[in-house]
Amino acid sequence: MAALHTSLAETNDHLVVSDDPEHPANHICTLCRNFYSQGWVGGTGGGTSIKRGPHIFIAPSGVQKELMQPHNIFVLEHANRSYIRKPLDLKPSACTPLFLAAFDRGAGCCIHTHSQWAVLVTLLVEQEAHTNGQDSKGKCFEIEKIEQIKGIPQGRTKQGMLGYFDKLVVPIIENTAHEEDLTQSLEEAMEKYPDAYAILVRRHGVYVWGDNVQKAKTQAESFDYLFRLAVEMKRLGLPWVA
Length: 242
Description:
Blueprint: H1 2-11, H2 24-37, E1 47-52, E2 55-58, E3 74-77, E4 82-85, H3 96-103, E5 109-113, H4 116-131, E6 140-144, E7 167-173, H5 183-192, E8 198-201, E9 205-210, H6 213-235
Parallel strand pairs: 7-8
Antiparallel strand pairs: 1-2, 1-5, 2-3, 3-4, 5-9, 6-7, 8-9
Helix pairs in contact: 3-5, 4-6
Protein name: Methylthioribulose-1-phosphate dehydratase
Binding site for substrate: 95
Family: Belongs to the aldolase class II family. MtnB subfamily.
């Protein structure tokens, strides 16, 4: 059986071999190095996944993001959720079921980071709720009248981007001991906020997705800019919402 598994893995190596820098196996490695340089995915945390046709390419668990290579990438058949390329010396990402939740809703790329700004924003929302005698569970991060909000689309079923006067709402879900255990609450938040392109995980990080790789990346950058700005605004006593 081990020999059979090895043979299958070798047969499907062609799925991650390409000279095209935008091939998902190459692109994931480039993105992971980029995100590492920004401090989003240190210590092997976080992950990235890209859908191309029927296949989903996923960064593995336990590999330092700045050192990731195409041969480390897992490939999943979207329709039946089965791996068609599985590096034998690596573990699949624990983020996989959460990535699938985004792909099931039409995403082309999903990014998970452990950005400190994302974590801090969830703590500030929690602190404000407790200060007001409220339960922080179910609270969202909200901000308005900031130019960078224009970098976020209006929603899956809507045309165009949010405007300067629009309020950006990002749901926050509670963290769990194991990554995969976040799946249900992530899916519930996706259903409750169908126009959202990001979901914060309290004390943990953020999931961001987009219609394609380029959109997911630029949206992740826009969200992180807004999270960082929000932390600085709070420090200066400036409100997020008028």
